[in-house]
Design brief:
It holds the Pfam family Fasciclin. The protein is α+β, with helices and mostly antiparallel strands. About 30% of the residues lie in helices and about 25% in strands.
Length: about 850
Amino acid sequence: KEAADNSDSEDNSASPFKAVISRNGLNDSSKREQCKTKVEWPLHMQSVWSILGLPRNPVVPWYKGSNVCIKREEEDEIVEADPASTDVTPAPTEEDLLDYNLNQAMYPKDEPFTESFNQTELTNPEWHMKLSYCKDMDTKRACFMKLYGPRIKRTISVAYECCHGYELDSRKEKCERTRYENAAKTIQDIGGTEFLTLITNIGLLNKIRNENITIFVPSNEAVASYLTSNAVDSNSIDFIIEPESARRKRGIIFHRTNNPQGRDIRRHNIQHHNRQNEVQSDGDQEWPQASSEEFDMNDIDWKRNALDQHEAHKRTYAYEHEESQSKLEKALLGHMLEGRISTDDFVDEKVVFSENRDSVIRMNTWNIGNERVKTVNCARLTSINHKCSNGMVHMIDRMFKPVSRSISDVIGGDPELSLLNTLFASSGLMPMLSDKNQHLTLFAPTNAAINKLGHAILHKMQHGDPCLKRILRRHILPITFCSSIVYKQGQVRNIDGDVMDIDRVADDKLFLNGSQIVIRDIVTTNGVVHVIDAVVMSDQDQPLSKALENGGYRYFLDAVRSAGLEDYIDELNNVTLFVPTNDAMEELGQDILRNPSKLREILLYHIATPETKTCGLSHEQVLPTKLHNRNIHINLYSHFPIDLETEVTAQCGRLTMRNKMACNGIMHEVDRILLPSEHDLLETLKSQPDFTIFYRLLIQSGFADQMRRKNVSTTIFAPTDSAFYALPKEDFRKLLNDTVNASKIVQNHIIEEPLCCAGVAPNNWFMTRNVDCINGAKVPVYRDTSGRVRYGSATVTTCDLTASNGIIHTIDKVLNQSNDLSRGDLMESCFPDPFTTIRSATFFIRL
């Protein structure tokens, strides 16, 4: 009660917790500011603890002790109902769940938090879900309860903080009484004397003594380093006044013996100045000894012009001095914020206007190991939360410049970044760099760095190269990244999710993927810029032709060059390139290689749209290609539980290496050359000399139209003519003359699903895949111990003859009898359904 009575309500209102909004009558100040008394054991218990060598009193957290004020606030967020959804309860955001998961692990049971709320309200059945957690901060302990109900999300916050006039001790054990000085005295006490001197000289002392203010004070070393720096760029503040000797005007010497009205005019002899003139003292100035020369009356015009020039120099100096003083004042005001801001009020990427209304302060927080690092305009806070009677003071490790320009303004205003500015403008990315709502980091290569790429690459980039946007995006991070947070090594992700390495070497140089950061931490209104000495590139930033070369696909690249398609594929964008292996390319016939037109058709068939990673492919997906009216059919096959990886095929070619990125597309390695399918299944069977009997039976049985359908993928296991001739003569004669029997035999060889040989799993006693023929019969398909594909009792001799609407496999046996439809090498009956197998095996294991 004493602490509450002594607290300054006006000062407490300066805390980040605003006016309390409550539905339980807790908005009364006497109820929301409560002080806790220290808990002590009874005397007899203290004796017991002493005998056991334990503390006399239990350890009481500081927020349960005395001189602690509790503040509560409540916020309701109304969620608009979605007409398309019947669920009207808002879901926890990703940030809500992250905070809950992190802090609930640290504080699974929080007694003071549950004591602070009306339990009747919290157990109200209208709340469908609630999350609660607490976290310790630099000067307070904050607890949160998030309640989710119909069309409403309520956040209740409770903060435990030392009352006014008290401060948490260094060990965070209790709130101790303290006496606050004004901001000027506090700055002096913590060692910010150089900054205080600048404030005094510029006339801001009364401001920091009397106004409610937060000041970020650079150390003395930081101020000295800033003032003595000779680096002047378009974002700098040149308020350093030159010494008097450097401001002397070389044309006229001002001397006490000069007499404007006489003829004896003393003038500096410039021609012999270095040899003849000596320096003499004149009060506080030192001037070269003037030489005496006689002038006639005509020289008086020269004297008058000289004096007018002197007055002009004086006015220029006065203006420059006034301008320098104004810049210095703006720089100092750029370190100040209105109100009392503690580090507990820092929100990552929060941007607020400073007392220099043209400049902002950007706050960032970082978790580096077990350390919590906070920065303002990329200056690290080294000493925090020094309370004063009229605000708060924090010490920082550098003096920063006013921040008033966006990233686009920085690169547009620096002549050394003119090439980069031109590239961003042509790429269409400039609006992102100008967006005031963004929080970005740009690693900006200089003109010299970009010129290192060579004239050819630079010319392509300046004239619509599709790789340009990807290269530029590699240099952009979706966060504000300050160099001061890197101790030795680190990694960052750019806006495309690519990982890049940051290294700090022994001589304090910083490198990004091998490019040195030569100018660090140019803070802007929407992020930060670092200047680097080389363009950051990877294999993913190369065009497709270069990616083929780097990947070792020399035969395919040679074919591309022979067909005159190298420039064509480099100018493409958003494509998927299926690249046959070198072994597969060796099987390409010389007749095709010598025919550029035919070769061009085959190569264009390997280029599909759009750019698609394997995670974006689906079963029976159709990708259009650059060959007119020709598509690539994608299939996915799972071999679980034998293999967890899904087999992906393109035109039945197995993808052996996936997702090799280029700047204008993506590459997938395939184990064969993909040939465009020009005919449907019926025409393909007719064109093959080994399928004359099966084709005749297909026509005879009335399945011709079914084999011409375009929207259904069908697989045929077609017996060769030799397989039919191997049948008994009576059976063969009956087959040719009996339409019903012929139809039954034909249906045993057709399934209505796309099945490539790559989709057939190895032999397994636990489970074998059965496929459904169009007549309902189930036929097992598997690979035997030799790796051959088996279809029932037949062996597939040739795989994957693709047609426009299906696949044909050649088999060496006609499935005529029922035992031919089973795994003849293991059992005579048809293999049971795989799910039945799994259930049976599971039951056996349970027994």
